[in-house]
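Working notes for the structural subgroup meeting. M.R. asked for a predicted model of this chain before we commit to crystallization trials. I am recording the input and output together here so anyone reviewing the notebook later can reproduce the run.

Input as submitted:
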Amino acid sequence: MRRILFILFILTGLPGFSPAAIPATGKVYNDKPLRIELPARSVNESYRIIPCGKNGMIMFFRSLDIVNVTKTKWYFSLYDTNMQLVWVKSAAVLNDLDYRFSDTGQDTLSFLFLHSGKSRSADNDFEILRMELHNGSMVARNGKIQLDAEVMAFSIAQGRGWIGYNVKGQAGRILQMKLNSGTTRSFPMGQGSQISINWMSPDTVSGYVSAVVSRQVSKKTVERFVAFYDTAGVIKREIPIGTQDLNHGLTHVQLTSPDRGAILVMGSFGLNSTGAGQKNKFTDESTGFFTSFLSGGTQRSLSFYNFLELTNASSLIDGHDILNLKQKALKKNKTLAEYSLDFPLLLHEVFLWKEQYILAAEAYSPQYHTETFTDFDYYGRPYTNSFSVFDGYRFFNTIITGFDKEGKLLWDNMFEIRNLVSTELSAKVVIYPSDENLVLCYVSDGMIGTKIIHENSVVEKTDFTAIDLLNPEDKILSESKGKIIPWYGNYFITCGYQEIKNLAAPANNKRLVFYFSKFRYEK
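Returned structure, recorded in token form:
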């Protein structure tokens, strides 16, 4: 059988780094994996990686360097595609702001820092930091945003920074900042206080902002629209989507444009759910996928695809349980679509592959463990007390589907996720188009799990490849926040926190590091 692996890219002359938090060239490792390790005190430090294509990659973090009583230094490092350090720059950011979003341009990178604590700066609630990748020069613009704003989207387009946000009990708004002057203005998504933004993207061609908005009509009814706004907030066009059927609530929504004048809205739905826009987008439970095809200013079709009805549903639930549900439905004169699994999803961004629109989502569930201790009452008598401790979110499956340009389901497939618990609600699986196939992969326990599919067929079953360490005597004791990130071409970055023990070292043989490595996909 044809073997497909992730191969670790090997180079000689890899720069080493001093024990300080900021990398420095000088020390040389020969014949080592193309891997960089930075010392970490805990897995809660703020190291992050943003790929920038063939421009390289940015590694950045919040340091302990205090500029003054209100600001702290963040350090940014650019590595080229050979993982060689190009430059290191710093920027002073307000103490109560933290990184939330980024947007990549052709040769620039923009960061959005948002208020993250209880105390608020007297003057600013957010900062947009723009960086030129070739030399690291940076320009920062600060602004105010409404109290308790939940930011849903961030983009840079036409010399403006766009921030879409919701505020409980108020109409959702879009804020725009002119990056050359720093002036801001915002506008509501519509009339009334029960309007929320679900998705937003500025159009670099028309100058309009397209958005999916929801309006709470009654306690059990939500209307959704695709709306187009100009820079003054005037609604230029509005198209209703979805249905008044109270049994189907849209939980996650995206849109794409397959043809000029046509819009394909895609996402997930829940049965007996209002899908209220003010809810956290990560906690709504979903029953299946939906599509809505819009053309000529109207909705031409609306389709719901229950996960239980998918060809590969047995990967989500035992086949005997599906058979029992079918028999139960038959006895009650119902269809299988009237039942549901209902679990939280993380929706991937829709992408085009072989004239098909690929919609994928990762299913997860909260995981807890019970801790028990003995205490004593007033009279000194022992008694047992127990409490639940949150471990994180267990990711257990990825649902991958292909649709035509009008939203008709063509095929479905599944990718089981094994032994992956994370405290971060972020996508773990990468879907990489490779010629006629799709390669699915994720990182867990120092391994890369890989599966290759062709639509609803399995080309290669799940296989695991170890992530090489710097020394042959190293052994991974634990891993946290591991991920794999597409970089450029068939190259990828793996990164995360690892506690490593060096079996050859007589003393001080354990270290906690944040690492990142370069991998190449080989057929």
